[in-house]
Amino acid sequence: MIDLAEKSTGVAAVEIRGVHKLYGSLHVLHEMDLVVAPGEVVCLIGPSGSGKSTLLRCINNLEKIQAGVIKVFGELIGYRRAGERLIETTKRETCRARQHVGMVFQQFNLFSHLTALQNLIEAPTRVQRLPREKATEYAKELLGKVGLADKHASYPAQLSGGQQQRVAIARALCMRPKLMLFDEPTSALDPELVGEVLDVLRDLANNEMTMMVVTHEIGFARQVADTVVFMDEGRIVEQGPAAQVLDSPRHERTKRFLERVS
Amino acid sequence: MTVISDAMTARDKNDIPSRIVPRSKYGTWIAGALVVLFVFLALRSAFANDNFAWPAFGRYLFSESILLGLVRTIELALIAMALSILAGMALAMMRQSSNRVLNAVAGTYIWLFRAVPLLVLLLLLYNLAALYPEISLSVPFGPILFTMETNTVITVAGAAIIGLALHESAYCAEIFRAGLVSVDHGQREAAEALGMSSWLMTRRIVLPQAMRAIVPPLTNQFVSVVKTTSIVSVISMPELLYSAQIIYARTYETIPLLLVVTFWYLVLTAVLTVAQHYVEKRFNRGRAGLSDYTARKLSRLTLEAGK
């Protein structure tokens, strides 16, 4: 196993301070504060509509924020600071800044006209301008790691949901990210296919990858997460070590949610 | 097994029918026979009727002026289509733009050129000199760079090409827009999350997938353009139809010459239909003509068979 994560000292992997997000007049995130240390695995849990996915999408600037600040390894994504203000950067600069944040979606979103291998090398060769041979070599290594070495020539439509999601994870890893964001990675899968994807996540966690996972798999969170964050109605209700939040929650709302899902 | 066969022997064997007879299809047979009869009668009338003048048809089929007209028709269709595709693509992207002005301009263009009949548009362009006797290029509100007489720029061929391109690009724009809309939004998000710029995303991810939805109606549009070129005969552009008209105005062999024209349009359309098949195959990579569902089912079946 090679070490995928880049170790850095002192700087937080993710720093979220006073973030608010509004869709028109709909206030979906209130006063978010969250710090993720390098190598930490954070699971975000909570009822649907609580803002977990939105928070994740704000981190790599797929969604804009209306107040506050988000830093990834000390850097802003999509904004630059000018005194008291955050100014939106050009699209080109935003693209460059989010290269090192990998994202995995609920619906996999593999490029359906490209094979598994082509899906992996598309961004490294076109965005990072890596030579084709080098990208291919690393892509094949990653496909091997997620157990799909023999599937490199398959199109997404020829793969099962679990296989597609594993390719999607490998595709994100191929950009050598420092941070991985998972947006309900197993929610669109048949129950029998959930395990193979969670195995890959577990493997990544063991390799010190910094990860933020929105999930409904409480068992997985208990096993793998360092920190569990429980969100409801756009607010962080409580956060803390996984065992503490999941086994002896402080808030009534958390207790009720956990009783219903487990 | 044994339980069932025991039960069978116990029952009366005569209870099991000896044969299963498919439903009779007399109606289908009669309808088919009638159609064949009508086709035969129509063909016989065509060949027995001297007015069709088949020898004249043979004489003009490969005559020089007809073939020249055919080449002009092909050139006209190709140039008009190429311009329409470029303009259509640009218009479709303008329609998708968040810039209200670009959006409105594209919308108005599409509305205008779909609304004006091609025949009217061609006559207007042909007579543009009456409106603007001179065309000049100048710096806006500044000095004039050069001036030309309208009739030297808008020749017959020029008017034909511009007219066709203006008209068809409006339709192409809608075809492209439908294609762009058909690509799942998740594909754009995934590309964005990988740090791809808008241009890279459009070129490498969105367009190749949109082409699946674009190619069939676009080829259809091309077939339509090939035939629509015949309309430019009204402004005396010597394409296939007008070339034939010139001949029969002199010889009065109207029917055989129109049949020659019909024959060549049929050939052009047939060639395009074959080409369409290959182009569609090229852009269907990743689904091989199957729906996602069928493709996945099939690959799973082959997997299981391989075990």
TrEMBL record, chain A:
Its EC number is 7.4.2.1. It comes from the Bacteria. Signal peptide: none annotated. SUPFAM superfamilies: P-loop containing nucleoside triphosphate hydrolases. Pfam families: ABC_tran. One of its GO terms (molecular function) is ATP binding. InterPro entries: AAA+_ATPase (IPR003593), ABC_ATPase_HisP-typ (IPR030679), ABC_transporter-like_ATP-bd (IPR003439), ABC_transporter-like_CS (IPR017871), MetN_ABC_transporter-like (IPR050086), P-loop_NTPase (IPR027417). Residues 14-258 form the ABC transporter domain. It catalyses: a polar amino acid(out) + ATP + H2O = a polar amino acid(in) + ADP + phosphate + H(+). PROSITE patterns: ABC_TRANSPORTER_1, ABC_TRANSPORTER_2. The keyword Electron transport does not apply. Keywords: ATP-binding, Nucleotide-binding, Transport. Belongs to the ABC transporter superfamily. This is ABC-type polar-amino-acid transporter. It comes from Herbihabitans rhizosphaerae.
UniProtKB/TrEMBL annotation, chain B:
GO terms for cellular component: ATP-binding cassette (ABC) transporter complex. It comes from the Bacteria. It is a multi-pass membrane protein. Belongs to the binding-protein-dependent transport system permease family. GO terms for molecular function: transmembrane transporter activity. It is found in: Cell membrane. Gene3D superfamilies: MetI-like. Keywords: Amino-acid transport, Cell membrane, Membrane, Transmembrane, Transmembrane helix, Transport. GO terms for biological process: amino acid transport. Residues 70-276 form the ABC transmembrane type-1 domain. PANTHER family: L-CYSTINE TRANSPORT SYSTEM PERMEASE PROTEIN TCYL, MEMBRANE COMPONENT OF AMINO ACID ABC TRANSPORTER. InterPro entries: AA_ABC_transptr_permease_3TM, ArtM/GltK/GlnP/TcyL/YhdX-like, MetI-like, MetI-like_sf. NCBIfam families: HEQRo_perm_3TM. It comes from Herbihabitans rhizosphaerae. The keyword Nucleus does not apply. This is Amino acid ABC transporter membrane protein (PAAT family). The lineage of its organism: Bacteria, Bacillati, Actinomycetota, Actinomycetes, Pseudonocardiales.
